[in-house]
Design a protein that fits this description.
The chain has two domains: about 100 residues, no CATH class; about 140 residues, Sandwich (Immunoglobulin-like), CATH 2.60.40.10. The strands form five sheets. An eight-stranded mixed beta sheet has the order 6-5-4-3-10-9-8-7, with no helix packed on it. Helices cover about 0% and strands about 40% of the residues. It contains one helix and 22 strands. It is mostly beta strands and about 325 residues long. It is globular and about 60 Å long. About 30% of the residues are buried.
Amino acid sequence: MAQRARPKEPRRMVMAMVFPMMVAGLFGCGSSPTTPASTPTPAPTPASKIAVFSDPTSSFSTSDVHDALDHILRFDSATSALIWAADGRSFPGFSVSGLFIRDDKFFQVRFGTKDGERRAYFTEAVAMTICEVEIVGGQIVITPTSLTVPGAAGQPAAPDAGGLSALPVRAPTGGYVLSFNARLNGILQPVSSLTVSSQELILVAHVEDSLGVAAQSGSVTFEYCSFKGLPPNDITRADEAPKEACDTGSANWARLTSVQIDPGGCPGAGPGTACMDFGIVRIPRVVGFRFRFNGQGGGIAGGVSAAENFTWTPAP
């Protein structure tokens, strides 16, 4: 984005397992002290083989599979692993059988069209909706959504589940509310607009269940509306856009950061909240924001807040 210094996200630690290789030493043996002992050959590891998925209704094939957030996933059929394309991290337990993923065939690759481009999507086999995939604390987290595959033609049906066709049991939908705040005199207070180069805007996400009980866990991903074709962090060509631009398709929702819901992580905002300091804006404009909630197996289903605009006005 163009007009502010966005706070850096916390570093994520990627854990790698290092397997020690035992190498036989060289020892003298009887009257032949100069003869080295043989070195054992390590067991071969399976060669990586990235799965390619073919659209049954066209000649389109791809190894890139999109989730609901437009993350790109790949699948290694040799090691039954999901590959996070952004950095190559690998997560086991995702075998490939045709268009179906995992041994129980719970997930399925389906094909659709977005902005004139043919794509593959990671979906639930029975529900037929696109899944949201995130990495939280080094673990892969998959959340169901209500998003359907855009421009999808006929797709293979889900595998037979012993005559059962009911949807998987899910947590109830919650309430997802975005608010705009600033710390005025050290106190977090709601604001409807700010003057440029004044206070820092703080985005506050509040999540509760259908009974009004605040969420105790889960993560929030904040997003802003970004004009297509414009680079972030370029003050000469600001990419921030009002929410209406994302509604009409001239802009896309872009990720800002993900934050865990933590009772003490957002002072002054109360329980069930997550906060992000958006920073100080120096150019008058209107920007659309929203957030996605990932329940991470808790009592509230994942969902998306309503999009809201925030306005920065010129200095007097």
